Amino acid sequence: MCIAAACGENVILNNIVPKHVETLTAKFSELGVNVDVRDERIRINNNAPYQFVDIKTLVYPGFATDLQQPITPLLFMANGPSFVTDTIYPERFKHVEELKRMGANIEVDEGTATIKPSTLHGAEVYASDLRAGACLIIAGLIAEGVTTIYNVKHIYRGYTDIVEHLKALGADIWTETV
Fold first, then answer.
1. Sign of the torsion angle spanned by Cα atoms 55, 56, 60, 65
2. pTM for this one?
3. Would 38 be classed as within a structural domain?
4. Which of 29, 51, 82, 130 has the greatest number of CB atoms lying within 10 Å of its CB?
């Protein structure tokens, strides 16, 4: 869903259980992402620039800590500073240094990231884990230029056929063996 919100136009996701993504769709609505939920289908349109928001991770049914990294690139497209506080894993911000390599204006202090509008540019970055990898893919898709992500084994562990799925959405993405 975060990929669709970052760079998709009229992306339809099928076989979705809307209750399972209520907190994310609510935050998308607050951001200004165009989200249309019907039965087991969600239609998403990128409406950037987005509104700045505050996000606080909580236990279920709150905003999932697993979503704080993938939603972060959307916040660079906002019209003001956003804040992400991870109350579950306050040290889960390894992706921040990689985003800074891409020109992100982001700082972390005591479990809260302050995210300011930024134009990202391609860079060589390292996925430290699955969710950081998702964040870096999304950041790479909205960045100007080429982004190279290393340690993609983390990404492949959780996202089957991610490259093919992104190509189907029109992404200019490929893999190389080194």
1. positive
2. 0.94
3. no
4. 82
> Can you give the CATH number for the domain in which 146 is found?
3.65.10.10
Q: How many CB atoms lie within 10 A of CB 76?
A: 27
Residue 51 neighbours by CB distance under 10 Å: 14
Per-residue pLDDT of the chain (178 residues; tens, 9 = 90+): 999 998 878 899 999 999 999 999 999 999 999 999 999 999 998 888 899 999 999 999 999 999 999 999 999 999 999 999 999 999 999 999 999 999 999 999 999 999 999 999 999 999 999 999 999 999 999 999 999 999 999 999 999 999 999 998 889 999 988 7
| Number of domains forming the structure of the chain | 1
CA-to-CA distance for 94 and 65, rounded, in angstroms? 14
Give me the domain span that covers residue 105: 49-169
Tokens of 77: 């497209």
State how far the Cα of 61 lies from the Cα of 23, in Å rounded to an integer. 8
